């Protein structure tokens, strides 16, 4: 003997229809639809708010990234300028030392 859960022999086959009929007679279906509508509207509002926040976050991140890139570029430029000045100073000092050694007859 096979056991069917949702077949025509199931004793609970009419339960959903009985439940819906009971809801119709008590007027609860109207309130269920209102509740479902409110839930759907709330979900839509939350989804729209999250979408707006996502767009704002992406725009803010882009601005911050651009600002960070400018700061890094400025620091890199300053570092390169400092290195260039030190190399020029070293070349100048070596030129003076070479001239002094040549005058003394030490190098050449």
Give an account of the 3D structure:
This protein has 108 residues and is mainly alpha-helical. The protein has a domain at 31-103. It is built from two helices and no strands. The longest helix is centred in the middle third of the chain and has 77 residues, at 28-104. The termini are far apart.
Compact overview of the structure:
The chain has 108 residues and is mainly α.
Describe the protein's topology:
Elements (H helix, E strand, L loop, with lengths): L14 H12 L1 H77 L4
Please tag this protein with its features.
108 residues, 82% helix, mainly alpha
Mean pLDDT: 86
Strand content: under 5%
The arrangement of helices and strands along the chain is: HH
Q: What is the molecular shape?
A: rod-shaped
| Poorly predicted runs of 5 or more residues | none
Helix content: over 70%
Helix-strand makeup class: mainly alpha
State the end-to-end distance: 115 Å
| Rg over C-alpha atoms, rounded to the nearest angstrom | 41 Å
**Tally of extended strands?**
0
């Amino acid at each position: 003997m096979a056991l069917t859960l949702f077949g025509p022999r199931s004793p609970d086959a009419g339960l959903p229809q009985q439940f819906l009929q009971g809801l119709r007679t008590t007027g609860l279906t109207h309130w269920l639809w209102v509740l479902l509508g409110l839930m759907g509207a709330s979900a839509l509002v939350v989804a729209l708010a999250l979408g707006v926040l996502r767009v704002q976050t992406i725009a803010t991140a882009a601005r911050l990234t651009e600002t960070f890139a400018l700061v890094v570029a400025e620091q890199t430029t300053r570092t390169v300028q400092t290195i260039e000045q030190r190399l020029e100073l070293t070349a100048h000092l070596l030129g003076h030392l070479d001239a002094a050694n040549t005058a003394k007859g030490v190098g050449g």
